[in-house]
Amino acid sequence: MRTLLFLLRKEFLQIFRNKLILRLIFVMPVFQLLLLPYAANYEMKNILLSVVDHDHSEYSRKMVDKITASGYFKLVNVSQTYDDALKLIEKDKADLILEIPQNFEKDLIREDQTMVMISANAINGQTAGLAVSYSNSIIRDFINDISAEWIQQPRLNPQPLIEVTSSNWFNPQMNYKYFIVPGVLALLVTLVGFILTSLNIVKEKEAGTIEQLNVTPIKKYQFILGKLIPFWILGMVVLSIGFLVSFLFYGIFPAGSLVVGFLFAGIYLIALLGFGLLTSTFAESQQQAMFVAYFFMMIFVLLGGLFAPIENMPDWAKYLTYINPVGYLIDAMRMLILKGSSFWDLRMHFLIVLGFAVLFNTLAILNYKKTT
Amino acid sequence: MTQKEIVIKTNKLTKKFGDFIAANEITFEVYKGEIFGFLGANGAGKTTAMKMLIGISKPSYGYAQIAGYDVYKETELIKKNIGYMSQKFSLYEDLTIKENIHLFGGIYGLSEEQIKTKREALIDKLDLHSQADKLVASLPLGWKQKLAFSIAIVHKPKIIFLDEPTGGVDPITRRQFWDMIYEAAANGITVFVTTHYMDEAEYCNRVSIMVDGVIQAIDSPDGLKRKYNAQSMEEVFLMLARGAKRGE
């Protein structure tokens, strides 16, 4: 126990002496929380629209007006032919082409059906998908308006209309920041817990100090706790700063219990510290450790649902996310902060992360050897 | 000889890495209070052998007892009773001199009071008063080595293992370093030292010369010189090491 105190003292002295890391620990949460939610924004504005109108009717004009009035689209051009419009897409001057056929108005009224074509530049599939679905829903709205107008007319078959209204629970304004901030908090905790820990231990390998410690009577558990406790505390400090920043700048205060949030992050950190320790037992140099850490961070974060929702992933990727600890933290943070989930609601998350903690730390302890 | 207390005893101690036999059935004894030089060319297996003796590398087979403890089963007890300083400088560069002394004193179980006494004595002896609160990184190599040695014996170990302690150090500092080694030996600490400076070999009570993982000769420097009819240890060393197939 006394030896552990000596080791902790040493570790904190070193952490506080490393000014760059120390500053990063405080600056990183602020920067990431201020930048990422603004930069990584999926709301689409100013989709460049090119219209090819072969009908030139009142209705075709009304439809285009309705689309541009939505605020998502910007009409950049009205072309004579589809080929002309396509050239604009090739030059990247338009994102979306709306082609309205001849007799659009006539068919709509007489035949009760007509067709329009939407072509999107799908180099960025995400933008294209959103642009198409936005325009689809606006056109559907438009048709409904027309039908409502004509439904009074006896010659049109009365058509039952089902209007779908939606309300967005847990994030009523569909504010993207509310979605991304809890994820960024999870990312921060992961960075400190995983990368800093593994680099720190490998640094001792490089300097030869770990060999010096290995010939002393320090017990394995003392060495490991001496490393894990300081970084656990650092991780919790970063999380606290993160919560504070998201409250001050975004007014986001967890709808659920803050205690549950810290408890969950605390267990999660133990898991990630164990993973960092495990990494350090394999890596011989900080360079190796950095690359291994980067490899896992990329996969963890991309598959963790921070930017792309896990629900949209193909099945094989969904299975991968089951073994991704970061995914559980991001999910739990969102549930806790946005939905106000309780400890009981999150019990499965707790159990799984606890499992990760036991697994990683057991492997790390088995693999960390004072004797080769 | 029979009166002497044995503190290191090995019998056919061997370490294999796959097919490669780094240390091949080495057998020797070291007596209490002597300075034992463990010589050999680069790659001869000195460091491998030493790592087995200090309990951070498991022997493939063979037997060794350090300060009365078994290298297989009692490594933790061995570690309590030895000090170790490697060719690679291994104090914490981002801690001050005082903090390093405090840390290692604490690890070896000294009380705060003992640490304080030791610390003052050590800083006095090395004349490091003006540097005591500076980071170790800012010290010249020679001072670092002297400091590392002093810290390695801060807990009064039975044996101190030194792995090429004077590598890269100037002749004056080397001389001072050897004064410190003599002083430690006079205080009853057995010194086990590897080196490839042959003038240093002359300072040892007894030396062994390792060639390709095997101990080729073991005796006092004078005894070896007589046996091989040589003027200096350097000559003896060249005679024995010339046949080496390993190393640079």
Secondary-structure map with pairings?
The complex is a heterodimer of chains A (372) and B (248).
Chain A: H1 2-17, H2 19-39, E1 47-53, H3 58-69, E2 73-79, H4 82-90, E3 96-100, H5 104-110, E4 117-120, H6 125-151, H7 176-207, H8 209-214, H9 220-250, H10 258-282, H11 286-302, H12 315-322, H13 325-339, H14 347-367
Parallel strand pairs in A: 1-2, 1-3
Antiparallel strand pairs in A: 3-4
Helix pairs in contact in A: 1-9, 2-7, 2-9, 7-9, 7-10, 7-11, 7-13, 9-10, 10-13, 10-14, 13-14
Chain B: E1 6-17, E2 20-31, E3 35-40, H1 46-53, E4 61-66, E5 69-70, H2 75-81, E6 82-85, H3 97-107, H4 112-126, H5 141-152, E7 159-163, H6 171-186, E8 190-195, H7 198-203, E9 206-211, E10 214-219, H8 221-227, H9 233-241
Parallel strand pairs in B: 3-8, 3-9, 6-7, 7-8
Antiparallel strand pairs in B: 1-2, 1-4, 4-5, 9-10
Helix pairs in contact in B: 3-4, 5-6
End-to-end distance of chain B: 37 Å
Give average pLDDT of chain A, whole number. Answer: 85
Structural class of chain A: alpha/beta
CATH architecture of the domain at 28-90 and 157-241 in chain B, please?
A: 3-Layer(aba) Sandwich
Q: Which range does the strand content of chain B fall in?
A: 25-35%
Largest interface: A-B, 26 and 31 residues
Strand order of the largest sheet of chain A: 2-1-3-4
Oligomerization = heterodimer
Which short descriptors sum up this protein?
heterodimer, A: 372 residues, alpha/beta, abc type-2 transporter like fold, 2 domains, 4-stranded mixed β-sheet, 14 helices, 4 strands, 66% helix, elongated, B: 248 residues, Rossmann fold, 6-stranded mixed β-sheet, 4-stranded antiparallel β-sheet, 9 helices, 10 strands, 37% helix, 26% strand, globular
